[in-house]
């Protein structure tokens, strides 16, 4: 496969994107198009020690910044790295697109330049969360805050295919985020979505709850982009807080055991 | 104040509820009515060493179990401890009601027996979450999954008063759970709720995000019962997972330093 990489997108771009392209080629044999400012990228690629022809630079003069509106890549910066990368996929020069840049601009390019697969109304944002037994794919996490119930079916189908390919699971289990296991629990929208998902023929296991994101009971969780985004941000902040609190505890525990060690040494002296 | 306690509600009931009533009286001078099966409660209260008249037992023969529907206290078990405790508040024998039992039955009694304060459409479920600087009150967390935007105003007013009294904060800050700080972010419902909250005269600081539940930026977060319930359950599960993972790490670290201690001891022998 050949991947178009938005080389100018994300923190520490473009350096980390160039290094990643070289590493992906070395470790997995992946070809790529590094899309961005050629005169910045060429010396970096040379410096990274890559000399072959399977990583190509595609020049794109403009960059979408975090202050740009999501539609900038369509309306104003048509020469931006994300837009030119999307053009490469549209024109068959690459099979996929990777960007760590402006999420909204990426979504707009996916929808307007590359276009959706037949049967899919709008793209979804998905995230893979670690849990006790492996991973859980959560979608949508922000592209569709006002998702209509019909979209839940699309999320489920896309999520099922993703989990099959990325996690290597046959018939991945699909759960609907709700606030109780019974199909009578939830909002009017989730109750309607429950019926739609039941009829898909996918491996739909019914409603799941917040705790199921992390306990390994389900491979794919389907929700609207508002709830998914809140779950993602709550999780990030809480994991950080608990980790910091417990690292402090580890430090204190270690200091205490070093203190114990020192007192034993001191004791031995007398 | 005198509090009606649903003595039969919750895990390890009634024993822990009796002990709690005695402790609350000893430490804070709080009077209470222990509502439940008198022949179970009387010996426990005696055993707990309480001999005064400020903790009274009010007999109630029935108990709502977790398998009962939320409406059981109204329709079938009118002699249940939660229902009789609610009667005590309605009749002026107690100023407040505490129950660790069936949440739905508690909500129904609050609404149907005690009744809502004028101006409040439906009761809300609120939870106090610990964060980096103290506490954050989150409501609603499940009583109103399909909350109408007008209810957000009620949640904000009730939450503000709670934070003022319970946290001792003057003009507590109120945030609206959304997926971006700008007032243009969120669902159609949250955008409407934003305008309603802006007009309340409360200390409304605008939209907050998932991360703000735990970073100490806001005293009260207002959301619908679906989103709030998901936040609560995600948080519980994630905190448990991170804690378990890091406790394992602490254990390994400790074992490593004990190993180091032993090797030093062994070394000293020779």
Account of the 3D structure:
- The structure is a homodimer of 270-residue chains.
- Chain A is α/β, with parallel strands linked by helices and 270 residues long.
- The first copy, chain A, is 46% helix and 15% strand.
- Chain A has eight helices and nine strands.
- In chain A, the strands form two sheets. The first copy, chain A, has a five-stranded mixed sheet with strand order 5-6-9-7-8, with helices on both faces.
- In chain A, β7, α7 and β8 (204-208) form a beta-alpha-beta unit.
- In chain A, α6 (149-167) packs across α7 (188-198).
- Chain A is globular, with a radius of gyration of 23 Å.
- The first copy, chain A, starts with a strand and ends with a helix.
How would you summarize what this structure contains?
With 270 residues, chain A is an alpha/beta fold. The first copy, chain A, has eight helices and nine strands.
What characteristics describe this protein?
homodimer; about 270 residues; alpha/beta
Which secondary structure elements does this structure contain, and how are they paired or packed?
The structure is a homodimer of 270-residue chains.
Chain A: E1 2-6, H1 15-28, E2 31-36, H2 38-47, E3 55-59, H3 72-75, H4 81-90, E4 96-98, H5 103-114, E5 126-130, E6 135-139, H6 149-167, E7 174-177, H7 188-198, E8 204-208, E9 220-222, H8 225-269
Parallel strand pairs in A: 1-2, 1-4, 2-3, 6-9, 7-8, 7-9
Antiparallel strand pairs in A: 5-6
Helix pairs in contact in A: 4-5, 6-7
């Amino acid at each position: 496969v050949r991947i178009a990489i938005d080389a100018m997108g994300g923190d520490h771009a473009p350096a980390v994107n160039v290094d990643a392209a070289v590493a992906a080629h070395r470790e997995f044999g992946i070809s790529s198009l590094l899309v961005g400012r050629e005169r910045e990228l060429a010396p970096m690629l040379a410096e990274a020690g890559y000399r072959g022809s399977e990583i190509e630079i595609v020049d794109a003069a403009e960059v979408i910044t975090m202050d740009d509106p999501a539609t900038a890549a369509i309306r104003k910066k048509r020469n931006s790295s994300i837009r030119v990368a999307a053009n490469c996929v549209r024109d068959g020069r690459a099979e996929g697109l990777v960007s760590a840049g402006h999420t909204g601009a990426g979504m707009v390019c996916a929808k307007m330049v590359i276009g959706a697969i037949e049967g899919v109304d709008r793209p979804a944002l998905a995230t893979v969360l670690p849990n006790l037994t492996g991973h859980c794919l959560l979608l949508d996490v922000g592209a569709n805050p006002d998702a209509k119930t019909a979209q839940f079916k699309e999320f489920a189908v896309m999520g099922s295919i993703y989990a099959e390919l990325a996690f290597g699971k046959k018939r991945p289990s699909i759960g609907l985020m709700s606030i109780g296991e019974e199909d009578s629990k939830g909002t009017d929208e989730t109750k309607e979505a429950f019926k739609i998902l039941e009829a898909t023929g996918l491996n739909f296991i019914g409603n799941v709850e917040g705790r199921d994101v992390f306990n390994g009971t389900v491979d794919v969780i389907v929700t609207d982009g508002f709830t998914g985004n809140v779950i993602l941000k709550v999780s990030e902040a809480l994991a950080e807080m608990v980790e910091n609190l417990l690292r402090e505890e580890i430090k204190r525990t270690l200091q205490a055991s070093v203190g114990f060690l020192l007192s034993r040494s001191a004791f031995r002296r007398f």
